[in-house]
Structure formats: C-alpha cells, structure tokens
Amino acid sequence: MPRSEVPDVVVRRLPTYLMALERMLARGEEVVSSAELGKVTGMSAAQIRKDLSYFGEFGRQGLGYEVEFLRDQLKRILQVDREWHIVVVGAGALGRALVHYREFTRRGLNIVAVFDNDPGKVGLPLGGLIIQPMCELETTIRRRHIEIAIIAVPPDAAQAVADELALAGITAVLNYAPATLRLDSDIHVAQIDPVASLQSITYYL
Amino acid sequence: MPRSEVPDVVVRRLPTYLMALERMLARGEEVVSSAELGKVTGMSAAQIRKDLSYFGEFGRQGLGYEVEFLRDQLKRILQVDREWHIVVVGAGALGRALVHYREFTRRGLNIVAVFDNDPGKVGLPLGGLIIQPMCELETTIRRRHIEIAIIAVPPDAAQAVADELALAGITAVLNYAPATLRLDSDIHVAQIDPVASLQSITYYL
DNA sequence: CTGTGTGAAGCTTTTCACAGCG
DNA sequence: CGCTGTGAAAAGCTTCACACAG
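The joint structure predicted for all components is written out below.
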C-alpha cells in the first residue's frame, strides 16, 4: 500500500470525493466519470484521475467509475471503513456542539468521553456521556486505546492540554483552539480556526 | 497595493503570523526575528520573510521585526483593522456555539443576526439576538450591508441556503456543512468540515 | 467512440544562499 | 556582526495530451 509517496494535499482531497460519492450513491447513481465528479467537487477531471491513480486503478476505460466500488475503496484507503474512538477536551459551547454533531457518529467517528477542568461541569451529563475531570484523561485514553482527541478549550489552555494528550499516548489531534500547537512530529495535528478562515477571506473583500 | 499577484496560500498563512504576534505583544515582546516567528508558527524562517515580502519591507536588517508594527501591518493587509458584520444561518447546536464564540467579537467579527427555518426556534433569544425567520434573510443582509455569512445548517440544506445568500448579495461564505457549494466565482467560500479533517488524519494512523 | 491512466510539460511554491544594510 | 529581502535553484503540484482499453 503506497504511503509516504502520496502527497498530503492529495489525501486531504479524498474526503471531498468520498462525500460526493456518498451523495451520488444515496441518489441511486451507479457510474460516474472523472468529469462529472469534478463538476460536483470543484476539481478538474485530470486532477481526480491523477489523485486516484496514486492508490490503484479503480475505473474502467470508456465507462468511468462504479460509484459504490470507488466509495468503498476510498473508505478503505482513508481507513474510515471501521469505527474510531475519540475524546473531546473542553465542555464549553463548542465541546457540547461537537458531542451532539450527528455527522461524526454517522461516519464512524464516535466521541466516547468528554473532559473539562471546571469542577462545576464535571459529573454533568452531556449527550449520553458524563463530563469527566482532567485527572482521568490519561487512564481513560490508555484503557480504551483511544488514538484521536479533539481540543475545544480556550486558546491559553490549548498547549497544556496538547502536552497532556501527547503524554497519554494520543497520535492524532484536531485542534479548534486558535493556537499553533508544538507537538512531536509523530503526532498528526489538524487545525480548525474559524477566525483564521474569516481573516483570510476579508483580505479579498 | 498588491492583490492578484499574491498567492492564496500566502494569504492563508498571514492569520497564523498575526495570531502569534498578538500573543507576543501580550507578553510584552518588542522585537522578533523571522527565525523566532518561525519556531512559534511552525514555518521556516525563509518562508516567513518571503511571505511578508509580497506586501512590503517590514523588518530591519540585523534586527528583526518590531512586533507591534508588524501586527498592525498584517491587520491592515488582511483588512481586520476594522469591524465586520456577519450573519449566521442555522441555530442548531453549532450555530449557537458560533454565536457565543468569544474569539469572533474579540477580533472584530461581529455576528449581528441569526436565522433558522424552524418556526419553533424563530423568535427565541440567542446571545443577545433574536432568531429570525429565513424570509427576513435578504432584507436584513441588504439593509445592514452585510458581506459575510456563516452556514451552519444540515448538509442537505446547505446549497439552498448558499443560493439564497448569493441572491441577497453576500460576497463571502464560511461553510460548516459537509457539502461542496456551487457558487459564482466572485463569492469567496471557505470550508470547515471536521469530518473531512478527521478522515484525512485517519489515513496516517 | 468514450473516458481512464500516465508520462511529460508547465506552473506554483518552497528552500537556498548571499548581497547588503543597520 | 546579525538578520532582512530576494534572485536563483530545487521541489512539488497541476494540467496537458495521448496511448490504450472496453
């Protein structure tokens, strides 16, 4: 299976293709060409063919791609053909919205624990879970072999939380706090910062 | 003022530099070198110097950059040295979290109206605002000269909402729905999709 | 014919390395 | 000296264009 040779920018486009294929499948479409998939995802047909070619030959010449087959292949490549366990740190407005976000469970991304350092919140129920104190973070992560964490705490606390997560053996972090995390390079970090997104949009207005 | 010649990838890095500079300023640091700024933001020193050079010469040879001055320049370039008015469409868990998100107002990004199509939600208070019905969308946007909208509705409704926003004269959209929006190319779209972010992380695990 | 898969070409972005300024 | 600003080189990514398969 090709790994290191695949550009990261290609991997980041695969979820978009997957999402489009899921929708086509729901509509009952059976076959799709790179040109059609391109129109729906906003990419060029050539780019889609090239991206897919990093992982194998999934299409049929003269015909296109079988939607369900390509969907399954992308799920396998992205490893989303199985269930993942996730912890959320921070039970503020954002943490609560994340726990209730239906698209996560729908895609096999299961939030199985929530943590907060506010004693007033610890013990309260949240979407079928109980908010746990930070001191239980490492034990919970290790006992349940959790690999992915979502950071939803205020910016000042983000790096400290990230350090704790690293110590607990987490290998992937989705960071919602507007802060650049300094972590070992073997930990994968993705950043979601609405302020940064808006600030690079206002440049063009 | 340079515009079209500046690569988009450069513009998208500026908010990260700005964020780091704000923190340095809060700590009382007065001067910073490209190497130091690089360490904090995770970029190379050369890249930072090159990025900044698209907009002018902000540093002093042998010394570095004056933190406050560079911060002000970046704010001016990104046009975040003024206040922006924003509408949020969708008053679910995510929309509510966005309305309460303190980093927005702190950075001059003011949510001034919230809309939802659920009659059970319309009229309810939310963070100092009243949830408005969708039929008031266009009037509100036009009367208050709003340029930026945040879409926080379920995936199936996203494209329809985007079309309404385009009709109402919106020029920038931040889309939280897991859907690729088809919009006129004169409308700037940024996508935030936690599922997609996680799905490209699981590839590497 | 239609539409994939893919080398090669073309373009963009990053890194290098150093002149030159304070 | 130390560190910026920047051409030039290197690396990376996208598009082109066509052989080839169904």
